């Protein structure tokens, strides 16, 4: 990682952070004209989401409240958006509709950069300036992250650093490299240079110590690819250990979320249940992911209480919120809002891909569910164990698949950028 980082010249100095009083002036920085965005859900037309902006009043006309606003205001759940691409101003209508943060990953950037011409001009400039493909990739990503952070900084300020974050992930090639991940996280934090950036670190066994060290260095972290309760507890401990090791008297600006993946759990366990094939097994399809997530929330309540936590809270520490990730429904037999509706509760985040986000706006139910029927979730969890399903093994398999998927996206994009760079160099000869 050190060699790769050294090849990347420091990006242009970050613009002075916006400090507007509201989202209206943040919108003004990017969008001087009205925007109208229409969405469709499951073939049904949706009323347009409208975000008005004007030179005088910024994001002027009030936007109609949506179910996303209700999620936050009535239930304390922060709805985030699991996507990022250019133009970043496309986020403005979503912010107006209640989105309070953004997550990204190597697959998201692979799709964004490879399918859009919006990156071409900057990429040509970087290649002409002597950058290699990987260095150019990071410059493209950093610009998107900085621009998105600028849009969400008003929320960050208004919530005193509790919300309004944009997440960027370290190289997936470092998923099994403890120290390389630490150095990459420090570097990304430095070059993005925004108070509301989350550095994403995978919850692999090798990177759990990285999380502790990065937190101890005062850097806020989004821990990603958590698939089991055992690994989730290790992640919480790494956060607490990091806060304690930081030596900071004020811990209020070092925050974290723990991204607990949901739908992929059902995808894998459903296949296992279908292979077992008994009526008892088949009756448990579509229940595993939510059951495990609800038990993770019970662990959260336990770990963030008591003398140890109270000592940290006195120094301003914030709880490491549970973030429900992988919340798009992959099985068409299940309700398309299943992984949002079922996990609503205070001090949580749900980062939604397009389909889940717009489905919830259209017909989601805003009701506290994350701690409802916990005994039923315990029963599902135990019943699956009795059928021979090993939760730890499920977690390990999904983690390997997740890391591998991100690596493939990252490597594929670098190959295509290399080819594009070579063709630009050839054309300029």
Automatic annotation (TrEMBL):
Record-linked SUPFAM superfamilies: Aldolase
InterPro entries the UniProt entry points to: Aldolase_TIM, TAL/FSA, Transaldolase_2, Transaldolase_AS
Top-level division of the source organism's lineage: Eukaryota
Keyword Transferase annotated: yes
One GO BP annotation of this record: carbohydrate metabolic process
GO CC, one annotated term: cytoplasm
Catalysed reactions, as listed in the record: D-sedoheptulose 7-phosphate + D-glyceraldehyde 3-phosphate = D-erythrose 4-phosphate + beta-D-fructose 6-phosphate
Keyword Methyltransferase belongs to the record: no
One Pfam family, short name: TAL_FSA
GO MF annotation, one: transaldolase activity
Pathway in which this enzyme or protein is active: Carbohydrate degradation; pentose phosphate pathway
Compartment(s) of residence: Cytoplasm
Alphabetic keyword roster: Cytoplasm, Pentose shunt, Schiff base, Transferase
Primary localization: cytoplasm
Family listed: Belongs to the transaldolase family. Type 2 subfamily.
PANTHER family the UniProt entry points to: TRANSALDOLASE
HAMAP family: Transaldolase_2
Functional summary from the UniProt entry: Transaldolase is important for the balance of metabolites in the pentose-phosphate pathway.
Name of this protein: Transaldolase
Annotated source species: Miscanthus lutarioriparius
């Amino acid at each position: 990682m050190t060699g790769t980082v050294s090849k990347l010249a420091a990006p242009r100095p970050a613009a002075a952070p916006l400090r507007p009083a509201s989202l209206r002036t943040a919108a003004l920085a990017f969008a001087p004209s009205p925007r109208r965005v229409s969405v469709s859900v499951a073939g049904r037309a949706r009323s347009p989401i409208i975000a008005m902006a004007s030179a005088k009043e910024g994001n002027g006309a009030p936007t109609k409240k949506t179910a996303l606003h209700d999620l936050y205001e009535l239930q304390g759940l922060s709805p985030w958006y699991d996507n990022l691409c250019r133009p970043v101003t496309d986020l403005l209508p979503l912010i107006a509709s209640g989105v309070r943060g953004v997550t990204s990953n190597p697959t998201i950037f692979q799709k964004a950069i490879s399918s859009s011409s919006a990156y071409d001009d900057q990429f040509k400039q970087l290649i002409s300036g002597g950058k290699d493909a990987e260095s150019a990739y990071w410059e493209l990503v950093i610009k998107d992250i900085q621009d998105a952070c600028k849009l969400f900084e008003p929320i960050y300020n208004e919530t005193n650093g509790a919300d309004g974050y944009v997440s960027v992930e370290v190289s997936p090639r470092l998923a099994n490299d403890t120290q390389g991940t630490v150095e990459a996280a420090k570097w990304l934090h430095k070059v993005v240079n925004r108070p509301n950036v989350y550095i994403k670190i995978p919850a692999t066994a090798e990177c759990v110590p990285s999380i502790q060290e990065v937190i101890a260095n005062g850097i806020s972290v989004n821990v990603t690819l958590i698939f089991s309760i055992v690994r989730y507890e290790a992640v919480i401990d790494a956060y607490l250990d990091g806060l304690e090791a930081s030596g900071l008297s004020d811990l209020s600006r070092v925050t974290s979320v723990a991204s607990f993946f949901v739908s992929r759990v059902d995808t894998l366990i459903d296949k296992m249940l279908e292979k077992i094939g008994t009526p008892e097994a088949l009756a448990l399809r579509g229940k595993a992911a939510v059951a495990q997530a609800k038990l993770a929330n019970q662990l959260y309540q336990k770990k963030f209480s008591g003398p140890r936590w109270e000592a940290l809270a006195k120094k301003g520490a914030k709880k490491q919120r549970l973030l429900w990730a992988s919340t798009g429904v992959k099985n068409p037999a299940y309700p398309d809002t299943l992984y949002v509706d079922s996990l609503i509760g205070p001090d949580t985040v749900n980062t939604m891909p397009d389909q889940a986000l717009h489905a919830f706006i259209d017909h989601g139910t805003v009701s506290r569910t994350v701690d409802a029927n916990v005994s039923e979730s315990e029963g599902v969890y135990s019943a699956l164990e009795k059928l021979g399903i090993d939760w730890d093994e499920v977690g390990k398999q999904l983690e390997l698949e997740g890391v591998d998927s991100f690596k493939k996206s990252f490597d594929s994009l670098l190959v295509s950028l290399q080819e594009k760079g070579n063709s630009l160099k050839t054309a300029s000869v």
